[in-house]
Automatic annotation (TrEMBL):
<keyword id="KW-0223">Dioxygenase</keyword>
<dbReference type="GO" id="GO:0009712">
    <property type="term" value="P:catechol-containing compound metabolic process"/>
</dbReference>
<keyword id="KW-0408">Iron</keyword>
<keyword id="KW-0560">Oxidoreductase</keyword>
<feature type="domain" description="Catechol dioxygenase N-terminal">
    <location>
        <begin position="48"/>
        <end position="121"/>
    </location>
</feature>
<comment type="similarity">
    <text>Belongs to the intradiol ring-cleavage dioxygenase family.</text>
</comment>
<dbReference type="GO" id="GO:0018576">
    <property type="term" value="F:catechol 1,2-dioxygenase activity"/>
</dbReference>
<dbReference type="InterPro" id="IPR007535">
    <property type="entry name" value="Catechol_dOase_N"/>
</dbReference>
<protein>
    <recommendedName>
        <fullName>Aromatic compound dioxygenase</fullName>
    </recommendedName>
</protein>
<dbReference type="InterPro" id="IPR015889">
    <property type="entry name" value="Intradiol_dOase_core"/>
</dbReference>
<keyword id="KW-0479">Metal-binding</keyword>
<dbReference type="Pfam" id="PF00775">
    <property type="entry name" value="Dioxygenase_C"/>
</dbReference>
<dbReference type="InterPro" id="IPR050770">
    <property type="entry name" value="Intradiol_RC_Dioxygenase"/>
</dbReference>
<dbReference type="Pfam" id="PF04444">
    <property type="entry name" value="Dioxygenase_N"/>
</dbReference>
<dbReference type="GO" id="GO:0008199">
    <property type="term" value="F:ferric iron binding"/>
</dbReference>
<dbReference type="InterPro" id="IPR000627">
    <property type="entry name" value="Intradiol_dOase_C"/>
</dbReference>
<feature type="domain" description="Intradiol ring-cleavage dioxygenases">
    <location>
        <begin position="128"/>
        <end position="311"/>
    </location>
</feature>
Length: 334
């Protein structure tokens, strides 16, 4: 008996998606306002109330923008061409759309709305386009960077809840650039992750690891987002920083970054990620014996970054979000 698969029947005609014509009538869109009205009416067919709400608002504001600015056909085609290039620039390890969202301030805005401040808690910041899922597991005290990637830095602190209770077993993902200002994903020859790692706090909620001193760096300028910043006369620099993502059962996930003070780009960060309480001081430790004790192969001096992280329990996070949402709605109605 033959094991060959039967041939697929040839497609002889285009087919519909199988959805019926709506059971209500729409006027012919002979006027600009009818285009908007008809599309909003069609969104009434969407069964998911949240999707319906979001899409109706998107259409309302997008169409209002087109009307208010009288966008020309040429301008809209250039917009489509730009978005096409953004998509074409994306790869499995390069996210140009996240970069676009970042430089337009949308990532920071979404983050701020979804993570309202809670007294005493560590502030969140933008994820950025360089997070990867393949960070190696490291033990406390080990290094996230291979030797020669930059000047030595040691990071340590305690992860606690808002009530001061230590959080043991919290998972910390951390990543940064090398001293040249490049993430490992920006190199053509990336045979393993570097300058990134995943560790867990000990039974007392403490954490510590070796890293390198962060440097300011330009976000990628070789793609459409880089060209956009040039057209807007905006610099593409980010202040020096270290990324952290902290998760523990029963707590709101924290995505944040720590920004050593003194950097000239703190206030004009290209992606609007800096918050005042995330600006930190680095201590100079000029002690060869201490450097070797902490595991730095060449000894000498190193920078010390001490930072305690405070996570928000889920119930507190929910209450803060609800209160923040009410406040925003009240301000919008005023």
């Amino acid at each position: 008996m033959s094991s060959a698969k039967p041939e697929e029947p040839a497609v002889t005609a285009a087919t519909s998606n199988g959805i019926d014509i709506p059971d209500f009538e729409l006027p012919y869109p002979d006027k600009p306002e009818l285009i908007t009205q008809n599309l909003l009416r069609l969104f009434d067919l969407v069964p998911d109330e949240r999707v319906k709400f979001v899409m109706k608002n998107l259409v309302t504001h997008l169409h209002a923008f087109v009307n208010e600015t009288s966008v020309t056909t040429e301008e809209w085609m250039k917009t489509i061409e730009f978005l096409t290039k953004v998509g074409q620039t994306c790869t499995p390890i390069r996210q140009e759309f996240i970069l676009f969202s970042d430089v337009m301030g949308v990532s920071a805005l979404v983050d701020a709305i979804n993570n309202p401040p809670v007294k005493g808690a560590t502030s969140s910041s933008v994820l950025g386009p360089f997070f990867t899922e393949d960070a190696p597991e490291i033990e406390l005290g080990e290094s996230i960077a291979s030797e020669g990637k930059g000047k030595y830095m040691y990071v340590e602190g305690t992860v606690r809840s808002t009530d001061g209770t230590p959080v043991p077993g919290a998972v910390i993902e951390t990543w940064e650039t090398d001293e040249s200002g490049f993430y490992d994903t920006q190199y053509k020859e990336r045979d393993h992750p570097d300058c990134r790692g995943r560790l867990r706090t000990d039974k007392d909620g403490k954490y510590g690891y070796r890293a390198i001193t962060p440097v300011a760096y330009p976000i990628p300028g070789d793609g459409p987002v880089g060209q956009l910043l040039l057209a807007f006369r905006r610099h593409n620099l980010r202040p020096n920083h270290l990324h952290l993502m902290v998760e523990a059962p029963g707590f709101r996930k924290l995505v944040t970054s720590l920004y050593p003070d003194g950097d000239p780009f703190l206030a004009t960060d290209a992606v609007f990620g800096v918050k005042k309480d995330l600006v930190v001081k680095l201590e100079d430790v000029n002690d060869d014996a201490e450097a070797r004790k902490r595991g730095f192969p060449k000894g000498g001096s190193f920078k010390l970054l001490k930072f305690d992280i405070t996570l928000v329990p889920l119930d507190e996070a929910k209450a803060a979000f609800e209160e923040f949402s009410k406040l925003r709605a009240k301000n919008a109605a005023a």
